[in-house]
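Lab notebook, design round three. We kept the backbone fixed and only want residue identities now. Task for the bench partner: fill in a sequence for the structure below.
Input structure tokens:
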């Protein structure tokens, strides 16, 4: 695929496609995840490489997201696009949580505005046997090549990621995005043995996928168990925590910081802490200071501005962002982020000003 030339409004410039004219190499993001003192609060955004950027839409065009992820040079280009626009403290690999499942033979289509659709959902013990172990060098070589290419270009840390067990299981069982996760919850309770096999197999796939990303060069990882907040604490502890804990236990020897993220998980934060992660990602529904009290200040925290506020006026956005920083209280271990991914209609200028605001507001504090 022929890439278009660099856009004139890219703030950071640099030779195209991968020359990022970045500030000096910074580890403040990694230091914050380790709860070390930093010169200013680090910032990155979930889905910072995405549809809100016109250059993203131009490069991707009508190509399916899974097909796009299979082209390392395109994945690298998309990963770097937001760093040309903003002084972000980390890059997140352009990929998708369904990539490893598609790579092992699960038929998945991700339609625009629809989300993942699984052609043959998994709803029985026999269906679970279709999930084979992942062999990263054979199954996802494009992911590993993109990471290797990015490490040659980036001057900020690179984040790898994968989906969490419940989130992946819910897509596989429901066959598509679900508001209520009713089939998933029914399987949990009616056939707990099959459920345990399912999340156990998914946990092994996630762990293998993340380990390979770290070995290829990812300097931090995030587990997106985005829909785990659909569960009550009892069900999370019984049906999700064990498989999730095995993932984080398996990552620990690699020595890279790991972030554990979910949406609507205010009542699950204590259990998520038990499951693992050097940092907990918090959505906007739980005040940051209250969330930190629940997980303890011996863990880092990430978040938690409402993504929808980024579509509002600058004054409204500024006020809410400063509120997040105030709730962080200057404690070491805060990574500023949104409470979920950047929304497609977000003005680029709002995010640019937001990054500058966080840096300027926190760099004079005694940290």
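Proposed sequence:
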């Amino acid at each position: 695929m022929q890439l278009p030339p660099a856009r004139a409004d890219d703030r950071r410039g640099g030779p195209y496609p991968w020359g990022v004219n970045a500030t000096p190499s910074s580890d403040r993001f990694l230091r914050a995840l380790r709860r070390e003192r930093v010169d200013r609060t680090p910032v990155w955004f979930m889905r910072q490489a995405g549809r809100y950027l016109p250059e993203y839409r131009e490069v991707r065009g009508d190509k399916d997201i899974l097909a796009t992820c299979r082209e390392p040079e395109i994945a690298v280009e998309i990963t770097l696009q937001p760093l040309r626009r903003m002084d972000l403290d980390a890059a997140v690999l352009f990929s998708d949580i369904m990539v490893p499942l598609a790579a092992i033979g699960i038929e998945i289509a991700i339609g625009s505005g629809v989300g993942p659709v699984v052609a043959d959902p998994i709803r029985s013990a026999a269906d679970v046997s279709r999930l084979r172990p992942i062999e990263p060098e054979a199954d996802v070589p494009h992911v590993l090549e993109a990471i290797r290419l990015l490490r040659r270009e980036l001057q900020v840390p690179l984040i790898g990621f994968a989906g969490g067990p419940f989130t992946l299981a819910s897509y596989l069982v429901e066959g598509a995005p679900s508001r209520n996760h009713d089939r998933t919850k029914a399987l949990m309770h009616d056939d707990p043995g099959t459920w345990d096999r399912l999340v156990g197999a998914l946990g092994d796939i996630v762990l293998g996928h993340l380990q390979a990303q770290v070995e290829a060069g990812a300097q931090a990882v995030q587990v997106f168990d985005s829909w785990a907040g659909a569960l009550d604490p009892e069900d999370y502890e019984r049906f999700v925590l064990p498989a999730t804990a095995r993932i984080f236990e398996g990552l620990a020897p690699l020595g890279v910081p790991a972030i554990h993220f979910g949406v609507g998980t205010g009542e699950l934060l204590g259990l998520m802490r038990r499951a693992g992660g050097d940092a907990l990602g918090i959505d906007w529904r739980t005040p940051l200071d209250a969330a930190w009290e629940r997980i303890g200040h011996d863990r880092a925290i990430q978040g938690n501005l409402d993504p929808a506020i980024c579509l509002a006026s600058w004054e409204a956005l500024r006020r809410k962002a400063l509120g997040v920083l105030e709730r962080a209280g200057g404690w070491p271990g805060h990574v500023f982020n949104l409470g979920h991914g950047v929304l497609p209609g977000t003005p680029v200028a709002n995010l640019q000003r937001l990054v500058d605001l966080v840096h300027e507001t926190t760099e004079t504090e005694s940290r």
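Keep this in mind before ordering anything: The beta strands are 91-92, 108-111, 115-118, 158-163, 220-224, 258-261, 279-281, 300-305, 334-338.
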